[in-house]
Design brief:
The protein has about 280 residues and is mostly helical. Helix content is about 75%, strand content about 0%. It is built from 11 helices and no strands.
Length: about 280
Amino acid sequence: MKRPLLEEKIFKALMLAATFIVVGSLALILATVFIKGFSALSIDMLIKTPQGGFYMGKEGGILNAITGSLVLSLGATALAFILSLPLALYLNLYLRKSSRFAFSARFLLDILFGVPSIVYGAFGFIIMVFFGLRASLLAGVITVALLVVPVMTRAMDEVLKTVPFDLKEVSLALGANRLETGLKVMLRQALPGLLTAVLISFGRAISDAASVLFTAGFTDSLPYSLFQPVATLPLAIFFQLGTPFPEVQERGYASALVLTVIILAISIAARIISRRFTKNTVK
């Protein structure tokens, strides 16, 4: 057998093995969560808050954690969007590809992208102590927003890079300034990808536990104030799986199933929205 043909077969086998390992691992995780969690899932668990001794095996539900996760993630995603979109636009609209500032900004965002979320939690805790704040929904929103900003900005940056250069040149040639070109041409062209970036960032925000461990606190009540602690699903799962009671651990898997379904719904929504708005873009 010739060497190029042999190399192709070897690498094809490696790619198939890698695909099988990744897809198989994902399927195994989903199957484990579904099998262990579905039997403990009930309507009461979804519509009730924890009663006294819920984490000791008594009655109640995780409505506080579901509501808290959604509120915290929506707030963090909105705050991150306010910071990420202008930065991504500035990198692609006002700076050249060879700009050292743009290179440095992207490099720093990539570093922040890889920083463990527990570091963001520790940073948020230090800020809270400095300003004399207590664990609250507001502190959790700010910390998670800092965690999400690099993810969202880099995703938006890569999306805006795909906007055809000729499209921007035509807009400028017709008399539009750079800001008008960015808001009316680039954003419209990149809208499907930008929406996907926001939804992916929302999924990242709702699934993180370490960054809210010190900053958001935990409570059995529904979120009603920015300055009070808030419950989140990742921490609820952590607390339930950490108990020695088998029935509570099963509820932990049920909570994980709820969180997985929410993230799956977000991913499906991202796909649908992306396809719908792609029809309106210039190709």
